[in-house]
Amino acid sequence: MRRGRREKIDNNNNFKRFVYASVGILLAIIITFIVTLIIYNNKLKNSTYSSLTSEKIADLVPNTENYLNETNDYIEEASSDIGKSIEEAIKDIESKEEKTNADTKKEEKKEETTKKEETKVEPEKVKDPEFTMPVKGENMREYAKDSLIYSETLEEWVTHLGIDIKADRTSVVKAAEAGTIKSIKNDPRYGLTIVIEHVNGYESIYSNLLTTEFVTEGEKVEKGQSIGTVGNSASFEIVDEPHLHFEILKDNVNVDPNIYLK
User: Fold this and answer.
1) Per-residue tens of pLDDT for the chain, all 262 residues
2) CATH number for the domain that contains residue 181
3) In terms of domains, do 145 and 254 share one?
4) Closest by Cα among 217, 132, 133, 135 to 170
């Protein structure tokens, strides 16, 4: 009788164990299916979820064997923890990707700024010419643009847009500054004339010359290079002693040569 009861109890216990084991396995399968379904759906909705690898999912899903030895309550608690772990993992991945994108944009902006700074080249500033006396001698007539001086040749009061440097006939005239021979001409007022073009809009004019055979139009000349000789070819100053009529222009406007001569 007792033996029959014990067998019945053992059978009941075995049946209960079997039921619990079956329920545990079934719940584990259901949870695994639900978790997999959630991850799959999240992959379709957000490309970020694609960074979750099968290894990460496997780490987040509990081992089925653990559920075979645990109760119903443990399975439900584990299921809740899994859900939280997946959400945290996804948020962590999203956060890392956002930070990476922000760093990438910042780096691209920095590189763009660097390239702009490298390509930005400051134009080299060209110094104004520093003129020297084109011939040795003393000034016999000064610059008078805003006033009048008496011309013995014309026998009247006139303006004078340059300076007249007294020098012996055939004295060598030199370029007051480096530049390019712009023109060689016979001016109806100031006779044989050479015009030299310099940087920053400056020009120098050498008139009342005797000869100009040292240079040709378009030729580049150095400062102090011989360009001609002093003569007496200026019709407006024909009665004056031999001299060089010298002018300086800035942007086609006459200026006082004394200010620029060193």
Assistant:
1) 555 666 666 666 677 777 777 777 888 888 887 878 777 777 666 544 444 444 454 454 445 455 445 545 544 554 555 555 666 766 777 777 777 777 777 777 777 776 766 556 666 788 999 999 999 999 999 999 999 999 999 999 999 999 999 999 999 999 999 999 999 999 999 999 999 999 999 999 999 999 999 999 999 999 999 999 999 999 999 999 999 999 999 999 999 999 999 8
2) 2.70.70.10
3) yes
4) 135
Same domain (yes/no): 152, 100:
no
Number of domains in the chain: 2
Asked whether residue 223 is domain-assigned, the answer is yes
> Could you list the residue range(s) of the whole structural domain that residue 164 is in?
139-260
pTM of the model: 0.56
| Residue appearing with tokens 């020297």 | 132
